[in-house]
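Give me the fold.
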Amino acid sequence: VSGATLTIILENIEENEDSIIEYNEDAYIKPKVWKTATISETSPAQYLGALAFAEDYESTEKLYPISATIQLVPKYSEKFKDTSKVYLWGYKIERRADVAGDRYYYVQADQINLGELTSNKVMDYKTNKPVYINHIIMTGRKIIISPVFKARPCFVKINYDPAKGGMDKDSFSNGQIFKVGMMDTIEFRAYANGSNAVSGYEHAHATDPLKEPSYYTMPTNWIEAYREAQAMDQIATMYGRLMLKYFRPIEGININPTLPGELNFNPFETFSELTVSYGTSSLTVMADPTFEIRNKGSVAYIPGEGESQTGNSENPLIISPLKQNKMYTISGAPDEGYRMVWKDWSGDINRDGRLSREEVDNLGKYEANFDRKTVAGNFFTYVPSYDHPLIYYSFEPKGPSTAKGLVSGRVMLRGRNILNLSGGQDISSDKPLTGISLDINGHTVYTNEKGEFEIEHSDFRSNEYHNIIITYKGINYTGHVNVNAFTNIVINEYDVFNPSNFVAHNLTDNNSVIDFRIIDNKDANYRFRFEVESLKQGITAAKAIIRFYSKNGVVKNEPIFEVTPQNGAFSFDFNPSTSDIVPGDKMTVQFVDQNGHLYLEHNAGFTFKKNLNTFSLLSSFKTPLKPAVDFVGNIDAAFDLGLAGKAEKYLDKTGKKGTEWTIAFGFDKEWENSLSDGSKVDDEKDGENSKNPAAEEL
């Protein structure tokens, strides 16, 4: 290179909030939210900043002799605060517009050695080829440099006791180590089995030994790049027992006191280890601290088996452990002249009788599962959907009225198929539930053929609510009814598990996506895949049961398919032909939680169609081709058809083995020109005739 100097320009990449275009994307970080160890969602990009000269921080353009070595430092945006979680990986050099190839050379370094650069000794990181000086010198002997930022790599290990619980949808394995960026978030959703309850996470982190004082001479970008490429087995060894001296408790980790199993973890050291801790589930029934009248009676729980428990204003009643979906009936014994009222105040962590904004926010999406109405009656029946529910009771003076109140209503099931739910379509329908058992304040009643019920009793007083437990197909649902007001009670078919992203692929046909509107029973390998969101705290879909039914409602596949989640999703393979699927068959999905409890069976939302094989048909009218030897026979006593090839045997609509013929008409131009009688075919009429129902299926 002729000349003794070069001008280095540090390109001032301005923040673009609307989009990240190709030439400035390396000035941004796109944090990820990890749902599993391999599946993540990208969050909005964050602008980091630009480059600066170490000796002249404010300048963006400087003249240097070609013998100079220029030290570069990051110049972070004032808006970006997480500077400890990112690093300057290196820089990129813009190539001249008349040079073919990529727009930039990438150099992993924090300094520019102009002597090596002008001698073509600097290597491009992406191609491992020289950065040619004549490719990068712009008009006026200028070289344009831009920053390349990266998030610091870090490693996270998660531990739990498989005998006591696991991770929702098998999103993370016990003892698994995985790599993320320090700007990322990891969503841990731990659950517990049986009577156990997740109580939180034990957590510690280890600083990187390469960042200890003895290694201070190593450049940061070298250390981070080494970690980026480091194998997982090396990480497991490095942060084993030999490295315990580097471990420190993690400070500032936010364990939700209401939902301790649900943790959004943001790593901030090279290695973090988290271990799920467990306790015991419990139901607490105590006097409402906001009521003055609290000592006018007591409460008791009399289980079917075991000892009875009691409580009063001084001693809360605690039932432990709990069983999900079990119905617990608490009886109240108020003093003469008083009655009892109850309310579900789960989430009141400090038990002051007031649900603060923070306490409600802690419940997040699960807040909708709690009905905060105050209900009256000497019995309170409860079905827990939370590991540590809290019930308050209080006493009210009885009024003089002894009139009987009427409780009446209608119970309906609101459902829609999985495809409509997964696709976001609001195509739901309500059907009455007949002959099901209802428990209202200790009174039992059943619905009639219209799904309606009615009961009159002096326990029910006007203008008050009573809780109601609805038992349908072994599942207990809770609700409330208003005395002397007909109440419509709607049970949501998807009140616990919400299936989504329901798709199917034809593995035999290059993994092509299957259109459920035309899915058929061909001899091909299909793969179904879907995800499931749990709508209740502490409940996970541990298994999905897949069944196929005939149009008469008979189960087709024995044994049925039982699928467990892998890496956050359910999937299973099957062949309709070998599974004896025939036109009209349907598919259902039923979920089972970690405790083996079965929930409602859901219609998938599609029906298998007939697989239409293609036959080459020869008509019996004049043709230059020789007639086929296999004849279908007379059709409507009008004409005969010859068939080139044999009909395939498969199941017909009755489910019996047989031979079914599907005949379609259509001729191309070559066929038309070859007609021996010289007749012509009218395109328009031919198209119309092809739509004739008689030609669709015989």
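Residues 614-698 have pLDDT under 50 and may be disordered.
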